[in-house]
């Protein structure tokens, strides 16, 4: 054992020395970096809430800084100007994804993590044109409204049973998004507690794993230890669960013997494209599963998080809750359901969702990028192969862009032209450039409709004895950032049709 320890320490020191020599030889000006320790670099300065740690360090070292995680330097981008340089000015240079041990195991040939190239372009084209075009999203209107109706019915039923006790709203919202995505992906929805729990566990495990550095990511020279002390075994287990789910969905559609053409769910659309001889991209079954994985993993978690945080901010700010209720109930005076066409008239509702996306981006550190060529940003040289993280959470708190940036103020978006669609770099919860999330319209339409109905149908209160000062608004660690505690609220009154 002592011999093994000495061997590992020697390897660490050797790797550190090589890395140090490589950077000292570079005559060009690199971005500033905090002082680092041997072997571990800046890891000792990073808490489990990465986005907050990076933000704190950027206040001292600037909006473009290098942090060293073990052997590997990462460029951390923390301002709208620098984000614009990466995702617009030099977008082609930073359009690929870096290799990471866990994401490489977890992913199928998906769009989100596929390296930049022709396969990625084809997958994005399929996703944006055939699955998430504006026309397709409009066609999902009935699905969204039916599932919101089911959500409201479930909460009403639970409220009648709970008799003033808190209900687990986070759990209801997560199940709601599972149903929405299942309907869109396969044309069916589930009403089985075991399956809800299984999918939630799989989604959360995905993001927990992706949000952590494995030994092979920090110390590539020690990647041989990955199978012993790394996260790869957990990642393989979770990938196998996803694989079984997708096999079940795809085989059920194939064995149904129905003509897949003209269907409105993802599986049938993808099977139709795969079987179409005129379609100029022969994508594999693994790539089909990858697109389904993008829909499940991203569509469920990110939208659920947005609704959950919006309700949290509103319950903590009763005046804003009342203002939103007045708008929603003023437009929909009768009937139990707010419809999509009603939402389009609700400017304050849309401002609440925008402000939630600003203050609580579901993925605060956008999916990582990597430079494919050397370039220069703000006078600093960014070497080829540099891994990049863009801190959307920090950018949303820039004092130059936002008045009282830490405060939840939906009014800031009334009359404002600032939007989250990738053109305004002070608000980039979905990213920008070539790698922008193609599910923006679907996610926001679902969040707006669900939130409008929650506010229209129910009056909400904190659990008995809890003050607004005691209400926990902390972030949980992870790649996607949930509330630290699941949201539990009391339904004080249920509004029904006259």
Descriptive key words:
three-stranded antiparallel sheet, 51% helix, 9 strands, alpha+beta
What does this structure look like?
With about 500 residues, the chain is α+β, with helices and mostly antiparallel strands. The protein has a single domain, classed as Cytochrome P450 (Cytochrome p450), CATH 1.10.630. It contains 19 helices and nine strands. It has helices at about 1-25, 50-60, 80-90, 100-105, 120-130, 135-140, 140-160, 170-185, 195-210, 215-220, 225-230, 230-255, 265-275, 285-315, 320-330, 340-345, 345-360, 390-395, 440-455, and strands at about 65-70, 70-75, 165-170, 370, 375, 380, 385-390, 460, 490-495. It has a four-stranded mixed β-sheet with strand order 1-2-7-4, covered by helices on one side. A three-stranded antiparallel β-sheet has the order 3-9-8. Strands 5-6 form a two-stranded antiparallel sheet. Helix 7 runs parallel beside helix 19 (about 440-455). The longest helix has about 30 residues, at about 285-315. It starts with a helix and ends with a strand.
Write the layout of secondary structure elements.
Elements: H1 2-25, H2 50-61, E1 64-69, E2 72-77, H3 80-89, H4 101-106, H5 118-131, H6 134-139, H7 141-162, E3 167-168, H8 169-186, H9 193-210, H10 215-218, H11 226-229, H12 232-255, H13 266-274, H14 285-316, H15 318-331, H16 340-343, H17 347-359, E4 369-370, E5 375-377, E6 380-382, E7 387-390, H18 392-395, H19 440-457, E8 458-461, E9 488-494
Parallel strand pairs: 2-7
Antiparallel strand pairs: 1-2, 3-9, 4-7, 5-6, 8-9
Helix pairs in contact: 7-8, 7-19, 8-14, 9-12, 9-14, 14-17, 14-19, 15-19
């Amino acid at each position: 054992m002592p011999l093994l320890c000495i061997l590992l320490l020697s390897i660490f020191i050797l790797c550190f020395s090589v890395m140090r020599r490589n950077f000292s030889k570079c005559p060009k000006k690199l971005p500033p970096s905090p002082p680092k320790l041997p072997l571990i670099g800046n890891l000792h300065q990073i808490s489990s809430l990465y986005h907050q740690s990076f933000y704190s360090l950027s206040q001292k070292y600037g909006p473009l800084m290098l942090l060293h995680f073990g052997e590997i330097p990462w460029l951390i981008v923390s301002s709208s100007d620098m984000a614009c340089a990466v995702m617009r000015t030099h977008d082609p240079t930073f359009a690929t994804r870096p290799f990471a041990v866990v994401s490489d195991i977890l992913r199928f040939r998906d769009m989100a993590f596929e390296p930049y190239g022709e396969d990625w372009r084809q997958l994005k084209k399929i996703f944006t044109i055939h699955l998430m075009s504006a026309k397709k999203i409009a066609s999902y209107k009935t699905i969204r409204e039916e599932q919101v109706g089911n959500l409201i019915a479930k909460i009403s039923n639970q409220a009648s049973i709970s008799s003033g006790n808190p209900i687990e709203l986070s759990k209801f919202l997560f199940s709601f998004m599972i149903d929405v995505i299942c309907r869109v992906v396969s044309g069916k929805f589930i009403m089985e507690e075991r399956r809800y729990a299984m999918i939630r566990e799989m989604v959360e495990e995905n993001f927990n794993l992706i949000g952590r550095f494995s030994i092979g990511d920090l110390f590539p020279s020690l990647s041989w230890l990955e199978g012993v002390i790394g996260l790869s075994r957990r990642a393989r287990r979770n990938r196998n669960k996803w694989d079984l789910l997708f096999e079940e969905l795809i085989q059920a559609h194939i064995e149904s013997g129905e003509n897949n053409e003209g269907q409105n769910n993802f599986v049938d659309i993808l099977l139709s494209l795969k079987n179409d001889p005129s379609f100029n991209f022969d994508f594999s079954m693994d790539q089909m599963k990858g697109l389904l994985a993008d829909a499940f993993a991203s569509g469920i978690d990110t939208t659920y998080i947005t609704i959950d945080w919006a309700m949290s901010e509103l319950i903590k700010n009763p005046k804003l809750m009342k203002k939103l209720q007045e708008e929603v109930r003023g437009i929909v005076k009768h009937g139990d359901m707010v419809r999509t066409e009603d939402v389009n008239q609700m400017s304050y509702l849309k401002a609440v969702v925008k402000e939630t996306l600003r203050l609580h981006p579901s993925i605060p550190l956008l999916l990582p990028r990597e430079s494919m060529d050397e370039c220069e940003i703000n006078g600093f040289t960014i070497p080829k192969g540099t891994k990049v993280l863009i801190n959307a959470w920090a950018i949303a708190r820039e004092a130059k862009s936002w008045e009282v940036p830490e405060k939840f103020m939906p009014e800031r978006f009334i009359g404002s032209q600032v939007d989250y669609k990738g053109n305004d770099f002070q608000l980039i919860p979905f990213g920008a450039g070539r790698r922008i999330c193609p599910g923006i319209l679907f996610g926001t339409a679902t969040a707006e409709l669900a939130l409008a109905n929650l506010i229209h149908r129910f009056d909400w209160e904190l659990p008995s004895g809890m003050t607004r000062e005691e209400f926990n608004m902390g972030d949980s660690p992870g790649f996607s950032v949930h509330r630290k505690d699941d949201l539990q609220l009391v339904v004080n009154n249920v509004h029904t049709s006259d």
